[in-house]
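Consider the following input, taken from an annotated entry for AB hydrolase-1 domain-containing protein (Trichoderma gamsii).
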Amino acid sequence: MPVDENSHFFENNGVKIHYHLYGQGPALVFVHGHPDNEMTWSKQIDDFSKDHTVILPTVRGYPPSDVPLYENAYEGHIMASDMVALLDHLDFDKAVFAGGDIGGIIVQKLAWYHPDRVAGLVIFNTLIMGTMMHLIHHDKEQQEISKFSVKFINHNPGDPWDVDHVVRTIEDPEYRAKIKKYLQESPEGGMFYFFRKNYPGPPYGQDIDTSGMHYTMPCIIIWGMNEPYLSDKILDGFYKWFDQSVRVVTLPNAGHWLWRDDPVKVNRELRWWLNALEAGKL
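Applying the prediction step yields:
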């Protein structure tokens, strides 16, 4: 079997984390979501590795990274610390972090816990945490949409789960089949522990303190409007969480996996923003 020269590992407090590494230059870290792995970003590698060090970690719970089977291993501050350990391992002071789905939650928590390590933040189709904390607890539409997450939160290692249902919103049939195979060959417990520890769920009706859910670095939100897991209300009043500049781009014909659905537009928008960020114009 050929050796993948771009494939590497590091450790964070005894947990082995896998990553792919491409190119040279300022660090740009793409963090994948569920159901997925680090190669979901394959359509971004060539464009951005020309002038950036593109880093694709495989988050804990997703092979070939370690899969700790105790739920506290997936606390948000621990998942964020994996990203800090990755930067330390590669000797970067800071990076631009981009995340979609649960990867978007991880990079948001990183931005709260370790803002000094985040040069800029890119959010692709994931809950904007401050807004979501209100919606999930007080909006019936979002509670209905989020029924899938209750099953994930309550899942225990070894419980049956419908893999076809989980991958159903991946539009590319070839990639959907690839991820289905990956999930069938992987232990699922850590993936669902993440939801238990990080995704807002019942009991609903609570008033959550969101005062700490602000972003102190320049940000861009790139959003596919064909989003199956979040109400459009997630973008209402988005600006109040961002203390520096925030750019919002919406793509009407893309969905939850917009970086794969429409990579040309996504890469173009991200490139414009990165150039402005690195020129000090944001």
